[in-house]
Design a protein that fits this description.
Number of strands: 46
Structural class: mainly beta
Largest sheet: 6 strands, mixed
Helix content: under 10%
Number of domains: 5
Shape: elongated
Radius of gyration: 34 Å
Length: 529
């Protein structure tokens, strides 16, 4: 004889039912509303709609639905992404890359991949493969030869779609960029400077690879220095890769320097030629000249950053930094905690949002002034949530969803319905990241998402909207069946279909011990009606 506890028969573990309890009801009353006394002592009907409500009944006037359920189905849960690709993905042609989406839902979701134009991303022999579809799927761009490069595959935008009977959600889009590896060399040119002044060396990298190549070190007469935010004596390798030599002396003419750089996808070092300082004669009166300038710097929050202000001239120029604030005007940047001026360079540790703005470097001596302005835009990784994440709304009633976005900057927020941008509708309005539906109709049930984006980052969040509709009529009927022998598997046929629209119902007849009401944990004989 087969037995089941009540919490095995319920559609979800009791601990997860709180999300479905209507406002103003208690969990116990919500569960109790599913269990109705049958017309025969010692038997109970457990009837429930998949998230919508339930009715009970018995007799020959029942309207058969033809839905045959093995056991009793549980409440439906829309897709929820557990893993999605990053917004940007660069990879070398020699190794390829993989994009993975995984999700959970009830029923189990299927996953497919799409391109930016909405076309399905199918396997392409030797170049692109797609594996998995049930709850986990991976799109792989395989290693390829340079002559096999295809813009529509290797410089494309992909996203995964996750679907089940509740609805569809989409991952944030991921822009992929295949880097065709090529040989490159780095070089250094001689740098000139007057005695007592500075000289600046730059490690020259070919522009075709400069985006992926960074300077790893400089060698000065056999001594190796790595990029840092503070000087090492008279020498300073800036975080951006330049070598600054302060306080030039006549003997610096014999100094030999070289740089080393590496590709992000090939750590093998590339060493440059050897260069030297060209020391000019005695200094003469000259106005300041700035040797390094920046237009815009875009660090992430908590990054360390350095703004250079290297000036030559005679007499030696003094350097002052200002923060141009709209409210306070031009404010002198002094040494205070995270913000320091070190030998003329402005060093900001653990950047914050309020560090954003325009900064002005002014170099001044008795012969004149030179200056430059740099814009700092501190970025913060985007994150999003939708509230409420789960709700049930009656037909004809209004509802709203709020998209809460943190991070900066936020260039756009787009609402999606079941994986597609929400089309403009007279009864649907959006304002300040809020979606408002004036009168809910039957096509409004499903999965909603908001997607927040900027040029380099994106974040999405989803919410499930179930249709409350009208409660199933209490006159709904369930056809009577003879109970199968207790040791046989039960097949339940759902018969009641009243309500608007007709709700999907499931039903099972349970035999309770001693004819009393069922409670959580009771062991009951499995049967069906």
């Amino acid at each position: 004889m087969r037995h089941k506890a009540l919490d095995e028969v319920l559609p979800l573990p009791v601990s997860r039912l709180d999300n479905f309890v209507p406002q103003g009801s208690t969990l116990s009353s919500f569960i109790a509303s599913w269990i109705y006394p049958a017309q025969f002592p010692g038997e109970y009907w457990l009837g429930y709609e998949l998230g919508y409500g339930a009715g009970r009944g018995r007799g020959a006037d029942a309207e058969a639905t033809g839905d045959v359920l093995r056991g009793c189905s549980g409440l439906r849960e829309g897709p929820r992404l557990l893993q999605e690709p990053p917004p940007l993905m660069s990879f070398p042609n020699t190794r390829g890359t993989s994009l993975t989406c995984s999700a959970t839902a009830s029923p189990q979701p299927t996953i497919s991949w799409m391109t930016a134009d909405g076309a399905r991303a199918e396997p392409v022999g030797g170049l692109r493969a797609v594996t998995g579809s049930q709850g986990n799927s991976t799109l792989t761009l395989l290693a390829f030869q340079p002559d096999q490069y295809r813009h529509d595959l290797h410089a494309a935008t992909y996203r995964c779609l996750v679907s089940n009977s509740v609805g569809t959600v989409t991952s944030r889009p991921v822009s992929v960029n295949a880097v065709v590896m090529q040989r490159f060399e780095v070089g250094v040119s001689d740098a000139a400077g007057v005695v007592g002044g500075p000289a600046v060396f730059t490690c020259d990298v070919p522009p075709t690879v400069s985006r992926h190549v960074s300077v790893t070190s400089w060698t000065i007469d056999g001594r190796t220095l790595a990029p840092t935010s503070h000087p090492d004596g008279r020498h300073w390798v800036l975080p951006t890769g330049e070598l600054v030599v302060h306080g030039i002396t006549p003997t610096d003419a014999y100094t030999r320097v070289s740089c080393t750089a590496a590709h992000a996808f090939d750590p093998s070092p590339r060493s440059s030629n050897v260069a030297r300082v060209i020391v000019t004669g005695e200094p003469m009166l000259s106005r300041p000249q700035l040797l390094l300038r920046r237009d815009k710097i875009r660090p992430w929050t908590r990054d360390d950053l350095l703004l250079p202000c290297v000036a030559r001239g005679h007499p030696t120029p003094s350097v002052t930094w200002y923060h141009e604030d709209e409210a306070r005007g031009r404010v002198d940047v002094g040494n205070s905690g995270r913000v320091q001026v070190v030998e003329g360079q402005l060093v900001i540790s653990a950047a914050r949002q309020d560090d954003s703005g325009h900064y002005l470097c002014v170099a001044n001596n008795s012969a004149g002034t030179d200056s430059y302005r740099v814009n700092i835009q501190v970025r913060e990784r985007l994150s999003a949530s939708v509230e409420p994440s789960l709700q049930r709304v009656d037909l004809g009633r209004p509802t709203r969803l709020s998209c809460r976005v943190s991070g900066s900057p936020v260039n756009s927020v787009t609402w999606y319905k079941d994986g597609r941008p929400l089309p403009p509708l007279p009864r649907v309005t959006t304002y300040d990241k809020t979606l408002h539906i004036g009168q809910v109709s039957r096509e409004d049930g499903g999965m909603y998402q908001c997607l927040a984006r900027n040029d380099e980052d994106s974040a999405q969040a989803a919410a499930q909207v179930d249709l409350g509709v009208s409660m199933a009529s209490r006159e709904d009927q369930f056809q009577s069946y003879q109970v199968n022998p207790p040791d046989e598997e039960c097949v339940c046929r759902c018969m009641g279909r009243k309500g608007h629209p007709p709700p999907p119902l499931a039903a099972a007849r349970l035999a309770s011990p001693s004819g009393r009401h069922l409670t959580q944990g009771d062991v009951v004989d499995s049967g069906c009606g």
